[in-house]
User: Which sequence fits this backbone?
């Protein structure tokens, strides 16, 4: 079995703390398993830094994580075009994930993430914690996972629609994911 470097990638990303990174939210995260370990140089590389948008690439082993963040504020709420009841009625490809505040705290402590939005009684679930859970369900042969966030998810029940590649919470589609 291959070694999993995802937590190392999350620790590398967590080095971005304080100042302008306080309250930052992840808009998009792309994970990829490279064919050749020599392709990726371990570390952190800034790809874009302008107008409050920050894009970074973290590498460890054969794994690469590219993250796009909004700095210093919660993500703006996009128009909610989802209707949880009508979209999910009768579908069987659903899972309920319970993400307890203790799990959020354990993850953020393990990777060194001190962002204040991940603290308190109903913390915002770190996007990388959701990505880690998805990677635990990775279909055979898939080497790329893209995750796009639309609304913040707080600790509690998260509904996963596997066939559509979507997360739902509190009557909203909160994120979408795609395997390749």
Assistant:
């Amino acid at each position: 079995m291959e070694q999993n470097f995802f937590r190392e990638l999350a620790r590398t990303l967590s080095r971005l703390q304080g100042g302008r990174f306080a309250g930052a939210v992840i808009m998009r995260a792309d994970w990829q398993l490279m064919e050749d370990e020599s392709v990726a140089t371990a570390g952190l590389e800034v790809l874009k830094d302008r107008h409050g948008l920050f894009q970074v690439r973290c590498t460890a082993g054969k794994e690469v994580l590219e993250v796009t963040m909004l700095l210093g504020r919660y993500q703006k709420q996009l128009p909610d075009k989802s209707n949880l009841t009508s979209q999910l009625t009768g579908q069987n490809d659903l899972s309920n994930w319970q993400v307890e505040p203790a799990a959020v705290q354990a993850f953020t402590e393990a990777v060194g993430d001190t962002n204040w939005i991940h603290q308190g009684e109903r913390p915002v679930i770190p996007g990388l914690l959701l990505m880690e859970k998805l990677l635990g369900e990775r279909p055979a042969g898939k080497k790329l996972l893209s995750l796009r966030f639309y609304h913040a998810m707080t600790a509690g029940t998260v509904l996963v629609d596997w066939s559509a590649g979507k997360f739902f919470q509190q009557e909203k589609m909160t994120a979408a994911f795609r395997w390749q």
